[in-house]
């Protein structure tokens, strides 16, 4: 019979971080370890199970079938470890936190929420995606604890977490930005500051435009842009790998900065909501440091 030795949680945490961060270097940075230490942890874990846990010859670390099974157990063990520490030290957080966020800013969520759940496994997160104007009303009514929004005249207030450039974006390989009138992919009238800014800026410099595609979701707008049907307006953090910032030499007008704000429900916040707010604040402010030179112009 196999001698089941206790597994090292530190090594398991390294394994989970390598997979989640997409590589040994990123995992080393996140864990504040030397890359050689991360490699040593993975070697020790594979020697323990006497089989590979990550597929070889791939750019990103993809678990083997055995690695997938271990990954699930490792996450559970790390969650239980966090709960044990919080229980014994009387620092455990429980309850439900309701967070609202626009579809445009879902890019901010996965990593930040994953880290929060790992740190506070006793907290249940409920995420509601919607329009900024609706999310602000929901926070004020108390049906949401927190909301991240694009600050605009119809959704004012909140704590500004960061400012991002507002840019024109198109698909590489298309000359959509040179068409007349300029075809635009924008959100519904009256609910999106990006649409209002784009039209006002074009009118101010006399560039004719037409609404070619309307959608309430970022995925719908970017699909039209990818196909070369239109260009759109967004922030660099919303750019996918298949869209690029349109070079200023194309003659499109400059757009004002966009403010991303955090709204909290009235009254004394729950401790879990307060901790989530601090986590989101740190994550968004770190992410908002955007290097525009990395976005290739169309």
Summarize it:
Belongs to the LysR transcriptional regulatory family. The chain has 298 residues and is of the alpha/beta class. The protein has helices at residues 9-21, 24-31, 35-49, 65-88, 109-119, 132-141, 193-205, 218-226, 271-287; strands spanning 95-101, 123-129, 146-150, 159-164, 167-170, 182-186, 209-214, 232-234, 244-245, 258-264.
With strands numbered from the N-terminus, the spatial order across the biggest sheet is 2-1-3-10-4
Shape descriptor reads: flat
Stretches with pLDDT under 50, minimum 5 residues: 290-298
Mean pLDDT: 87
Estimated structural class: alpha/beta
The rounded distance between the terminal residues' Cα atoms is 62 Å
**Strand segment tally:** 10
Tally of contiguous helical segments: 9
The gyration radius over C-alpha positions equals 23 Å
The amount of beta strand, in percent, is: 15-25%
Query: What sequence of helices (H) and strands (E) makes up the elements?
Result: HHHHEHEHEEEEHEHEEEH
Instruction: Characterize the main sheet.
Output: 5 strands, mixed
Helical coverage, percent range: 40-55%
